[in-house]
Amino acid sequence: MEERILFSSESVLYEDSTNNTFYYSFYVPEGCKRILIDFSYSPDEMEKGDLRKEKVKACLNKYMPPPYDKELLALVWAGADFSDFPLHNLITVSIDNEKGEYIGCAHRHQSHQVHEISRDRASYGFQPDPINEGLWRIAVQCHAVVTPSVEVKTIIKGEF
Hints:
Helix content is 14%, strand content 44%.
């Protein structure tokens, strides 16, 4: 089978991109049998240090207000070093076919993912779909950008 790049994008997202979705359209020519989505972002996790420690504390305070903060206080009393707590970026993808119908999503924590969609099979989170000619759309959802910036790469290939 012949493989062709249908779409390629490299972008940089920042903390203020959190809770935003970015849409990109790409054209699928006639004769395409399978779509492959190669999606990655870097860095995956904020480095250990004082900034991470302060962000983790802020998140815990925000999401564990009284009376739920008893668990937070127990961590403090136990001498928790919040700089050891993981703090990850979370960016995901979803796709719509040429009719604007939702085909699925990959809301996973892996910073590098490869997905496939064809008439007969699809990666987990997506549904099989005939690969019809037309304008398709991919959405990049920024659930959390915790590092000052994150590089996002998306390559969509078609198999003919």
